[in-house]
Design goal:
Helices cover about 10% and strands about 40% of the residues. The chain contains two helices and seven strands.
Length: about 130
């Protein structure tokens, strides 16, 4: 089934899980899947689903209580290597969220490709600037 709007929560939960530090490459959008258990912080855990086109690829985390959009600090992918220090300005990225019809899960996407950080307590997601594609 390719039409994400028809997928159920159970369909998404049945996807394969990546290893915590596995690099799955670039993808187009991220679906936020709230989990049914509580993190040590007292907040609910979340998992995230990498999507290429309309094809869900895998579950990314499962242990995170927070998502850092464009990394902790918002400096983007590989910022220290690119800038050498905290940058004075950051290229704007257009982030959007929609809600899937059947599962009611939220999907996060940008005007570019995405890449995921490791599955840790805090999950980082990055937009890859178009000039680096």
């Amino acid at each position: 089934m390719k039409d994400l709007s028809k997928w159920t929560r159970k369909d998404f939960e049945a996807l394969p899980k990546r290893k915590w530090n596995e690099d799955i490459g670039e993808f187009d959008s991220l679906i936020i899947l709230p989990k049914r258990y509580i993190h040590d912080s007292g907040y609910a855990c979340m998992d995230f689903i990498a999507v290429v086109g309309e094809e869900p690829k895998c579950l990314l985390s499962g242990c995170s209580d927070v998502i850092h959009v464009n990394g902790i600090g918002g400096y983007g992918w590989n910022w220290l290597e690119k800038f050498g220090t905290v940058p004075d300005k950051i290229e704007p990225i257009s982030w959007s969220i929609d809600c899937l019809k059947t599962s009611k899960l939220m999907r996060l996407f940008t005007n570019t490709k995405l890449i995921a950080g490791n599955a840790l307590s805090s999950f980082e997601i990055y937009a890859i600037p178009k000039k680096n594609e």
